[in-house]
Amino acid sequence: MTAPVEMVKQFWEGRAEAPGVGDSEVTHADVWQRELEIETILKYLGRGDRVLDVGCGSGYTTKRLAPHVAEVIGVDYSDAMIRRAVGSGSGPAVFAVKDVLELGPADFGVFDVVISERCLINLSGWVEQRRAIDNVATVLRPGGRFIFIEGGRQGRKNLNLLRTTAGLEAMPTVWHNVDFDEAETLAYLDRDFVLERRLPFGVYDFVARVVHPLLVAPDAPVYDSRINEIAATLALHVDAFPELSRVFCRVLARREAA
Ligand SMILES: C[S@@+](CC[C@H](N)C(=O)[O-])C[C@H]1O[C@@H](n2cnc3c(N)ncnc32)[C@H](O)[C@@H]1O
Q: How far is 37 from 147, CA to CA, in rounded Å?
């Protein structure tokens, strides 16, 4: 069952104002996974690029990308997230309130790169997720890149199978996330995009979600740990265990209009 849209939005509004939680953690507790995501994104950005970060949250990633590109705009449907992004100093990044389901070229023009870093999994289902993908296509120039970093259903299932086989508990589903079916999503993306790269984070998930918890059991693993840092560094260089990647990450190029 999917969560009501208003509840999900309220959840993010609340997170933006969570006391004592830093910008790097307010939207995602796994700080080394996020570092891996940022380093991965940076590989696909050019100095002259105009970039849009949809569902930018507190703007942590957006601000890290800003020095490397010509222009970056972060948008989020949560006023509180955008207030937080601006309030902690935007630097060269620009922030605006915008729902990805209402995004179009009339808002901010067209871009060389659009990034969705765990934003579209918050939509209420595949109908809305397809609409968001369609909207992203309208704001990318032909040949422009869509960096899609979301949650994959099959990766999560395989990882949970390995965890339970190893004596760990399955990771519970996140109430406000709707993971993507990988085959169905790739087939849909193919209408407007050419697949450039599959970016498996499988090494990260294998180490951070299987080896690390086994190593510290019965204690709970801590996100900000040396072993997760090592896992993130390895995952940047080693393309292995793609079937274990919870993170469904693809680099896609916008097709030329027919
Ligand atoms: C998991 S957080 C990720 C934030 C950021 N991309 C990051 O990596 O830190 C998801 C973000 O997507 C935003 N979001 C969810 N649905 C959205 C929508 N329909 N339009 C715009 N933003 C949305 C939420 O407010 C939240 O800030």
A: 10
Residue 170, domain member (yes or no): no
d(CA 201, CA 233): 11
3-state secondary structure of 106: helix
Task: Indicate the burial class of 96 (C-beta count within 10 angstroms; 0-12, 13-18, 19 or more).
Answer: middle
Let me know if residue 196 belongs to a domain: yes
Distance in Å, CA 55 to ligand 1 centroid: 3
Let me know if residue 167 belongs to a domain: no
102 versus 173: the higher-pLDDT residue is: 102
* CA separation for the pair 163, 71 (Å, rounded): 42
CATH at 141: 3.40.50.150
Residue-range definition of the domain harbouring residue 189: 5-151+176-201+243-254
Q: Is the peptide bond before 242 cis (omega within 30 degrees of 0)?
A: no
- What atom of ligand 1 comes closest to residue 13's alpha carbon? 25
Residue 235 lies in a domain: no
For residue range 145-190, list pLDDT tens digits in order.
999 999 999 999 999 999 999 999 999 889 999 999 999 999 999 9
Domain count along the chain: 1
What's the first-to-final CA gap in the chain, in angstroms? 38
Q: Which atom of ligand 1 is nearest to the CA of 132?
A: 19
Using only the alpha carbons of the chain, give its radius of gyration. 18
Looking at residue 247, its amino acid is V
Is 216 a residue whose pLDDT tops 90? yes
